[in-house]
Design brief:
The protein has 407 residues and is of the alpha/beta class. It is built from 15 helices and 13 strands. The radius of gyration is 21 Å and the shape is globular. The model has no long low-confidence stretch (mean pLDDT 97).
Length: 407
């Protein structure tokens, strides 16, 4: 089985948009293109359902049903119960809400562990708990490779640790961390686990139920959907943490960590992400499978395509002596998010790539701590080339030709 890229790209209006013709998109880690299924649902909600949902009127009832459909179908793909999935305005804001809840629950002297591999969203909010007397410990990356060593985590774990936070993969290092292994270590020490999946989920929705963390966070706008943050909070933890929503919603697990009114239309549109998964499954695989199984099959198809394209990019950059690749150079071990330390400011290089029809980014990408730990000046930043399963061989060739011209 393999992905039919013509079929895949037909699901995304951006690829047929005249103003984008000839433009190769390599800034997917900042936000993916949006699939037609999401656009259709968002348009329908704004044109036909834009009333307060869950009321008696037909438009109101249907709007509520579409919001519920998004939660039902996406939680099934993720392998968790429906009410263990919450929506919020962004992953960063969702993390702040969770940090507030943990701050109310933890006692001074109790500890949490964060990493310096993370995007700031899954480290900054937790670090601020030190103001409340919480012991914040840093699980440090290897400064040469960016690798997070589970053995180093074991040295930080003791009976006072209540939470371990780490990324499924970093948005600059790219290495895929062994979530199940790390989660088992933390759970054995009596700690909960929070995984930032923002940089991993675009490359295939994970089976969170099997992976095992207590919290899993990612962003819909990087997984072909609208600008929403999705968070799985498993029941055992979600009912233990103090309610952050309205007091009268305390008995509803998925409302406990949504202190503000949700974006009804965007939640409803998130069901289009499940439509997209199902469309890929039906086209490439077929046959009977439950939602988690369909999600797993599509995940594997996406990863196989990405590894093929990533092999070509890594073969090009790892042989150059004028740059440094952050993270592993083995495609099977990383996401197709490749950060290059050029030893000079990356922003102007990204701007030069744009002159060759290549959309890429240069900067720190809110991963300042990771860059500093690896000896990269955040002010100069890195050139980041990020792609996904819909990227073609022709676009990879265009990228490499552009790099030849600007490096």
């Amino acid at each position: 089985m393999s992905l039919d890229l013509d079929f895949v790209r037909a699901q995304f209006p951006a690829f047929s948009e005249p103003s984008l013709q000839g433009q190769a998109f390599f800034e997917n880690a900042g936000g993916s293109y949006v699939c037609q299924q999401v656009i259709d649902r968002l348009t329908r909600f704004y044109t036909q359902r834009k009333v307060q949902p869950y009321g008696a009127a037909a438009a109101s009832r249907l709007g509520g049903e579409e919001m519920d459909e998004a939660r039902t179908r996406l939680s099934a793909i993720l392998g968790v119960d429906e009410d263990e999935l919450s929506f919020g305005p962004s992953t960063t804001q969702n993390t702040y809400v969770l940090a507030q809840a943990f701050g109310q629950m933890l006692q001074p002297g109790e500890a949490i562990i964060v990493t310096n591999q993370d995007h700031e969203a899954n480290t900054g909010p937790w670090r601020r708990l030190s103001d409340r007397g919480i012991d914040v410990r840093e699980w440090k990356i290897d400064p040469g490779t960016g690798h997070l060593d589970p053995a180093a985590l074991e040295d930080l774990l003791d009976e006072s640790v209540r939470l371990v936070c780490f990324p499924h993969c970093s948005n600059v290092v790219g290495e895929i961390n062994p979530v199940t292994e790390i989660t088992a270590l933390a759970h054995a020490a009596g700690a909960f686990v929070c995984v930032d999946g923002v940089s991993y989920a675009p490359h295939g929705f994970p089976d969170v139920g099997t992976l095992g963390p207590d919290i899993y966070l990612f962003s819909a706008y990087k997984t072909y959907g609208p600008h929403q943050g999705l968070m799985v909070i498993r029941r055992a933890l979600g009912t233990l943490l103090p309610n952050q929503g309205h007091y009268f919603n305390a008995d509803s697990l998925y409302k406990r960590f949504t202190p503000a009114g949700p974006d009804h239309a965007q939640i409803a549109a998130c069901a289009g992400m499940a439509d997209y998964v199902d469309a890929l499954y039906a086209h490439a695989v077929g046959g009977e499978a439950d939602a988690t199984g369909r999600g797993a099959a599509v995940h594997d198809l996406m990863r196989a395509r990405e590894e093929e394209a990533l092999d070509t990019v890594l073969a090009y950059v790892r042989d150059r002596n004028d740059l440094r690749v952050l993270g592993p150079v083995d495609a099977a071990r990383r996401a197709p998010t490749v950060a290059l330390d050029l030893g000079r400011a990356a922003g102007p290089v990204a701007a030069s790539l744009a002159d060759h029809g290549v959309m890429a980014g240069g900067g720190d990408f809110y991963a300042v701590r990771a860059l500093q730990a690896m000896g990269v000046d955040p002010a100069q930043g890195v050139l980041r080339l990020s792609f996904t399963h819909y990227t073609t061989d022709a676009e990879i060739t265009q990228l490499l030709g552009a790099l030849d011209a600007v490096l």
